[in-house]
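Team,

Forwarding the record for the chain on the shared tracking sheet. I've put the sequence and predicted structure together so nobody has to dig through attachments.
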Amino acid sequence: MPPIPISVVEANVEGSGCGDQTCVEEGIYGEGGILGDIEEHRIFRSKKELMTCVSITAMTEKFQYKVFKSKPSFVVVRCIHTSCSWRVRAKKLVESEYWMVTKYEKNHTCPTDFKPVRRRQVTSWVVGECVKRKLINPGRVYRPRDVMDDMKRKFGVDISYSVAWRGRECAYDNLRLGTPEQSYKLLPGYLHMLMDTNPGSVVNLEVSNGNRFQYLFIAFAASIHGFSYCRPVISIDATHLKGKYRGVLFTAVCHDANQQIFPLAFGVGDSENDASWSWFLHRVKSVFGSNLALVIVSDRHRSINNAVQEVFPQAFHGICMYHLLNNLKTKFRNKTKELEQHYIRTAKTYNLQDFHVLFYTLSSAVPGVKEYLEAVGLHRWTRSHAPSRRYNIMTTNISESLNAVLVKVRKLPITALVNEIRLLCQKWFHERRTKAAGCTTMMSKDVEMKLEGRKDRAQAMGVICADQYTFDVVDGDRNYCVDMALWTCTCRKFQLDQLPCDHVLAVVRKTPYEAYDLCSLYYTREFWHETYRGVINPIPHISSWTTPQQISEFELQPPDVRTVAGRCRKRRLPSMGEELPTPKCSRCKERGHNRATCQNPIAFHPTDEAGCSGSNLPTHQPIHPSDQHSTPQL
């Protein structure tokens, strides 16, 4: 089946993009108790919301109710005691989904000693409504045991572990726009509203036979505009999703003028294979274009390499030097210390002469590594041999950092995932636009700090003039030639980073040249501000969506994947040679666990190494018999 064309724009909302944030923040139950009391003529948005309010009222006032009559157009609820006058009557408004309370008898006339043992109104969906306010943050750890404790503390009711677990899942479904299956059905409408509220963005949704989800691509209009003012070095990566239907999240990012992450495009596919990477990169090329100066940086995944060669044959494809270092650690296990010591300096050096010296040292320290690295290609992992400017992007650290930011939202259903990504981009664009507007220097703040450090080092260098353009700079026991006409320095940092090096700044200090005139426009305040000129707009609540009939009637189905039995893996498997940090407990200060799982006893009065307890506590000395009747001094 051909892909469904959806040309979209970006959007943002306050809080939950597709949910009513006011309802989420306030809800029916808050920290102070019931925020929505039952009153005559009060209107509820649905019958479920009405019954939820009745259930929470019953839990708070510690009584039970029964549904006396329930029809599609009205409902009558009474106290469970036959002689009690408490009751609620509500009716459905004509041609609407809203319900209005028409009669409410608030006072109870049942005997005071009548106390129902079982609270049958405490169902899982009522529990979910009570605790959903605590689950707005996707990264919060809220266990069923915590749900049980909160229900006991707030309402005085005891619920089972299974009710607490199901209640938490109901709250998740409420906040995440339904179940994973319902989230896929909402996705076409969400993307349409994204297009409607943010013209200029590009979204492609591709489905397979049976209207099953296959691929998704999103590039916000603000990102498309901002990329023209960023250095043409794109870092691409993919990370696994943790939801029910798994899949992978593709990302393409670059650096802005202030050396911060600038998101370009996002994609969702089934896995990291040739077809999915090729599909994603084709969309990236169609949106952001391609030129001879473009550089793609990634890890050594075979599918990425095949897709880049197919889609960007003229672009230079560099690899992350840290991913290659992990591969080296795996292959040369007995030389890990020597590898890390010499490899990083070899990869980062700008000068070819320095590279040959460092590479020879590395080859001597680790036999066999020279042949391995030459087979990989020196131009792909070194700065000195790269045919195009990589600037300071030698790793995929910006992609890995973005993956770390999204680690908590990768378990969300598809529509909630896209919405959280949009919210993150909206937040970043607003904060950085404000920061760039307040910048008063010629360059971005990060570049200004870097230039100041280089100027300090340049003061200790000697400058010998050959003519008005050529200078000899003495840096310790080495000499460097600076040509101001060609904008070159023999250290090669000037021409590769497009930023004045120490030696050029030493020349600037002795000549009428201006340091700012020698910096690339990519580092300027104007380019920084222009990068974030675009605005990512919010998306209205789902009840306010206006979608064409074709999209409303289209039911997108989840991808056809085999669901693995058991719990989904929460932690990724480490890459070859990767050393994962060991967690440290903030309670007992030991490593290997965290505070939530700590089971070590903690002494009430901690002792120091000498064995003395509580250095700040007073020491009680035995009282001598002769002092027992002495008069205390005032």
